[in-house]
């Protein structure tokens, strides 16, 4: 790709539904916007069909495939039954592990097992295996291309969210070599090799900042930072090894957007199971804090003191309930958060065995109940 492709303003179609962006900024809305993490995922038969027999990261490297997978759930582009739900935002199809790949690590997606790093980092000396300087445009330009293409093809129907994994979550994958319940190999580094840990976290942060900027230049209208592995840290480790980098990312992305004359975009931080850090997260330069289902909506509002919009947080497993029960749960959730400065979502991704109809019921319940509440006020 030509370098210049990445910075040209691209005459994108005008945005028609900006409810998600308004809610992120705490502005008035006609209904509460809703989207789901992993909304373009294996719970959809059409997704399984398009992905069938194809290597996961090869799919990620194809802008056309990423665009199609994103659009499948997002807009009225395909004839029924392929068109799905009236989500208020779309998230680009990709993965957080493309960043360790850009740093030079091999990552495979093993069907039924999840991500695998054949040669994880074992000791601080292994940091020498990483590229000291990453040319983000060269290594991750395929994501930027996918974003530009998808933004055009969305025809302004809903905004497009870009994303990244946060430094601690990526570091833990790079050391564990895949999923883990204890994260003990990665946590061993925090306790035994704190300096090397900070070195790696800084290196990841530098790449992530460039990566997010590239996504905005390519057309992303909001950004979500996934700190999926907050739950295995305690408050002290979180404050030392996660929070400073999360803050640095938001501050640097915003400063650089300003310096480049680009408009600010709302940023969402989702630190899964990081309830202990809610106060700090709401003072970290993000417009939105994403919540998992272990946090009570009213208490989250109190603890974040109106400083940020909130996103979340229905237990994904509630999608196993009947439609009527889903509707009740959603009603309680929306009442708890209130309709202002709120983006409805699940507390984590949709699981592959979930019924698409239940996702539809969730989306409809958010729109219906929030409209009723707003009309009453
Ligand atoms: C930890 C993490 C990963 N990836 C991601 C996270 C952070 C969110 C979280 O906490 O879950 C983020 C991610 N991964 C994917 C997206 C796309 C956008 C969306 O949310 O719809 C996003 C935002 C696609 C994907 N990423 C993956 C899939 C499923 C694999 C496939 O399609 O073959 C999808 C749709 C694979 C993946 N990628 C990852 C894992 C653990 C897995 C395996 C999951 C499994 O096996 O169920 C790493």
UniProtKB/TrEMBL annotation:
Family under the similarity heading: Belongs to the uroporphyrinogen decarboxylase family.
Boundaries of every Uroporphyrinogen decarboxylase (URO-D) domain copy: 33-42, 161-177
Reactions accelerated catalytically: uroporphyrinogen I + 4 H(+) = coproporphyrinogen I + 4 CO2; uroporphyrinogen III + 4 H(+) = coproporphyrinogen III + 4 CO2
Keywords annotated in UniProt: Cytoplasm, Decarboxylase, Heme biosynthesis, Lyase, Porphyrin biosynthesis
Molecular function per GO: uroporphyrinogen decarboxylase activity
PANTHER family in UniProt: METHYLTETRAHYDROFOLATE:HOMOCYSTEINE METHYLTRANSFERASE RELATED (PTHR21091), UROPORPHYRINOGEN DECARBOXYLASE (PTHR21091:SF169)
CDD domains: URO-D (cd00717)
Stated role: Catalyzes the sequential decarboxylation of the four acetate side chains of uroporphyrinogen to form coproporphyrinogen and participates in the fifth step in the heme biosynthetic pathway. Isomer I or isomer III of uroporphyrinogen may serve as substrate, but only coproporphyrinogen III can ultimately be converted to heme. In vitro also decarboxylates pentacarboxylate porphyrinogen I.
Name of the protein in question: Uroporphyrinogen decarboxylase
Keyword Membrane listed: no
E.C. code: 4.1.1.37
InterPro entries the record matches: UROD/MetE-like_sf (IPR038071), Uroporphyrinogen_deCO2ase_HemE (IPR006361), Uroporphyrinogen_deCOase (IPR000257)
NCBIfam families cross-referenced by the UniProt entry: hemE (TIGR01464)
GO cellular component: cytosol
Primary subcellular site in the record, as a coarse category: cytoplasm
GO BP annotation list: protoporphyrinogen IX biosynthetic process
Enzyme kind, highest EC tier: lyase
Pathway annotation from the record: Porphyrin-containing compound metabolism; protoporphyrin-IX biosynthesis; coproporphyrinogen-III from 5-aminolevulinate: step 4/4
Designated gene of the protein: UROD
SUPFAM superfamilies to which the protein is assigned, alphabetical: UROD/MetE-like (SSF51726)
Localization: Cytoplasm
